[in-house]
Write a structure and sequence with these properties.
single chain; 252 residues; Rossmann fold; seven-stranded parallel sheet; globular
Length: 252
């Protein structure tokens, strides 16, 4: 493989959910490989900390609320006007939502919120970058889905719905935009050691780890490495696909 295909020199990479966990690890890795990263998240304090760590100017940093279509569209419009192009979009933002909860006991407002942020937010991000990527005749889009979107986790109905919906969305869009030089894929991690799981019950964590043949949680650096490949020129003949990062849990 040509080493130039896995670096990001001269490329603008937008990263949603960049403040913590997988997104922050991806931002560090891509910046290290020469990319101009534009980071966005709702977690202001953590985002500011990462900005300082990476020595990013203010115009490459923005708050964003993935539960608001207006916020997503405005943030992406501003970033695009500043960057002039978008070579790659990585989206690792999301919430776990209700867990260890029977589906009939989940209040609709909580169900809808999880789907809105995890699925609708990803769709709005994709819609925002596709026009400029089509003009460029080049683009890479990588969304973090979940093994829950493939297999489902009991007691996590909203999360399962959102992530399976995201996988289906990507399958179709991948076929739509392939003639435009755009690649879009998903990544399906099993449980990863991140802040996202801070509110996941101990019972649910034990269940998820018990399903992993490697017998451990994944690390953010392992996932970031895969996302960096998915966002790079090297990922040139795979689209509409869901990559695995599940320690052997995935069965398809």
């Amino acid at each position: 493989m040509d080493a130039s295909n896995v670096n990001f020199e001269g490329q603008s990479v937008f990263i949603a959910g960049a403040a913590n966990g997988i997104g922050a690890a991806a931002a560090r890795l891509i910046a290290e490989r020469g990319g101009k990263v534009f980071i966005m998240d709702i977690a202001e304090e953590a985002l500011s900390k990462l900005q300082k760590e990476l020595s990013l100017p203010d115009d490459q940093v923005s708050l964003i609320d993935l539960g608001s279509q207006e916020s997503v569209e405005e943030t992406l419009r501003t970033f695009i006007s500043r960057s002039g192009r978008v070579d790659a979009l990585i989206n690792s933002a999301g919430i776990v939502g209700p867990n260890s909860t029977k589906v009939e006991n989940i209040p609709w407002v909580d169900f809808e919120r999880a789907v809105r942020i995890n699925l609708f937010g990803a769709i709005w991000l994709t819609q925002a970058v596709l026009p400029i990527m089509k003009e460029q005749k080049y683009g890479r889009i990588a969304h973090v889905a979940s093994i829950a979107g493939k297999e489902g986790n009991p007691g996590m109905a909203p999360y399962n719905v959102a992530k399976s919906g995201l996988i289906g969305f990507i399958k179709g869009v991948g076929k739509e935009v392939a003639p435009d030089g755009i690649v879009i894929n998903a990544l399906a991690p099993a449980v990863i050691r991140t802040e996202l799981n801070a509110n996941t019950s101990e019972e649910m964590l034990k269940y998820m780890i018990s399903r992993i043949p490697m017998g451990r949680q994944g690390e953010v650096e392992e996932v970031a490495e895969m996302l960096a490949f998915m966002a790079s020129k090297a990922c040139s003949f795979t689209t509409g696909f869901t990559f695995d990062a599940s320690g052997g849990r995935a069965t398809y």
